[in-house]
Design brief:
Layout (H helix, E strand, L loop, with lengths): L18 H12 L8 H12 L5 H20 L3 H10 L8 E4 L2 E4 L6 H13 L5 H11 L5 H11 L12 H12 L2 E2 L2 E2 L3 E11 L2 E7 L6 E11 L2 E8 L4 E6 L3 E10 L3 H5 L3 H8 L6 E10 L3 H8 L5 E4 L4 E10 L1 H8 L5 E5 L1 H16 L2
Antiparallel strand pairs: 1-2, 3-4, 5-6, 5-7, 5-10, 7-8, 8-9, 11-13, 11-14, 12-13
Helix pairs in contact: 1-3, 2-3, 3-4, 5-6, 5-7
């Protein structure tokens, strides 16, 4: 007489076709190498949480089928080839579900929990994302780790509060800008186009609400690149009126629209090195570009490199206590303010007109006191 499977002795079992999927999802969500689960405990979970009767050996078969299916999907092979790969997988390189002395667990593929933790920190440190958007994106990436690791990551990244935007349009702004800059849309050729938007600013009368700059004037620019600096998202765009490149905070843009008009500034953008541009301009923007030589005390070498980089910048020893840096800089109040933070530890060497402008800037401040 043919011996029946234990699950068949009790008649037709409910939801048995769902069992392998539920087993896989449970292992992905709750287990890792340090937190495995036995076949018996997994069977108990299926019964308690889903009302599915499962015998221990059937779970072993489910896990084997899950590993086989994963190999078929990832390597695009048939079931016979997957079985051969599985049989030869001595070092568990191809399996999704593994087993150790304490039970079964899901292996994280191509990344570990520290990778996800770093991504979560990058998301939360982005000032251009509204808090609810940050939390949503962190939830999305935490689906890649188990629940215990997810809770740990969310706890860690939420420990630090940051000033962030209250503009919920940011993600839409980014989508429209990328569409305008794209050279292909929906599989068809697309000519990069200009965009229009209104630009916002804070006012002291109402710190919670931003108002439109220039009495609501519509800005029309040619977008070329999205840049991230100090947790903020910027659009680098060519301004038709001023005939030069200007960067705008994406979270301060409102009503972004694609205009269908071919963008300008292609030649000018070709001459820009984005790496040196960001090092030269951010935190020092708003003035005429000049090549300046500065003298620093030796302990500030790393600080100077962080600010100016190494490309197209000259560093040289001045004396035993000092070095000089020669770099292109946007001469502005922001640049002078940055220099003042170092006091006597930095000095402008040349050009002479920049030295005079800096001295006049200091005199104006002194006159206030």
């Amino acid at each position: 007489m043919e011996k029946k499977n234990p699950e068949e002795r009790h008649g037709k079992q409910n939801n048995q076709k769902m069992k392998p999927y539920l087993v896989m999802q449970y292992l992905l969500k709750y287990t890792d190498e340090n937190n495995p689960i036995t076949g018996e405990d997994l069977a108990a979970v299926l019964m308690e949480d889903y009302g599915i009767n499962a015998e221990r050996r059937s779970i072993y078969r489910d896990i084997e089928e899950i590993n086989k299916a994963i190999i078929m999907l990832e390597q695009g092979c048939d079931i016979e080839t997957a079985e051969e790969i599985l049989a030869e997988d001595e070092y568990n390189e191809e399996k999704l579900i593994l087993k150790n002395k304490r039970g079964f667990y899901a292996k994280r593929r191509n990344y570990d929990v520290n990778d996800i933790r770093l991504l979560a920190e990058c998301i939360y440190s982005a000032k251009f994302l509204e808090k609810s958007q940050s939390n949503f994106l962190i939830d999305v990436i935490c689906e890649l780790v188990n629940e215990r690791q997810s809770e740990s990551i969310k706890h860690d990244v939420l420990l630090t509060d940051r000033v962030r935007t209250n503009n919920a349009e940011v993600m839409n702004n980014i989508a429209y800008i990328n569409e305008a800059m794209s050279k292909e849309l929906n599989g068809e050729k697309h000519i990069p186009e200009k965009i229009s938007f209104k630009y916002l600013k804070h006012t002291i009368s109402d710190m919670k609400k931003q108002v439109e700059r220039r009495q609501g004037e519509v800005y029309i620019v040619s977008p070329f690149a999205l840049l991230i600096n100090d947790g903020n998202y910027y659009l680098l765009a060519f301004d038709d009126k001023k005939q030069k490149f200007i960067h705008y905070r994406v979270d301060r843009m409102k009503n972004v629209k694609c205009l269908g008009e071919k963008r300008d500034g292609e030649k000018e953008f070709f001459n820009i090195n984005l790496e040196t541009y960001t090092q030269r301009v951010f935190s020092m923007y708003g003035g005429e570009e000049k090549r300046v030589t500065l003298r620093f005390i030796n302990p500030l070498l790393d600080t100077a490199i962080d600010r100016f980089g190494k490309k197209d910048v000259q560093y040289s020893k001045s004396d035993d206590r000092h070095f000089t840096v020669t770099a292109k800089v946007e001469i502005s109040k922001q640049f002078f303010g940055w220099l003042l933070g170092f006091g006597k530890e930095v000095k402008i060497i040349s050009p002479e007109e920049v030295k005079e402008e800096f001295a006049a800037y200091i005199d104006k401040i002194r006159d206030m006191y």
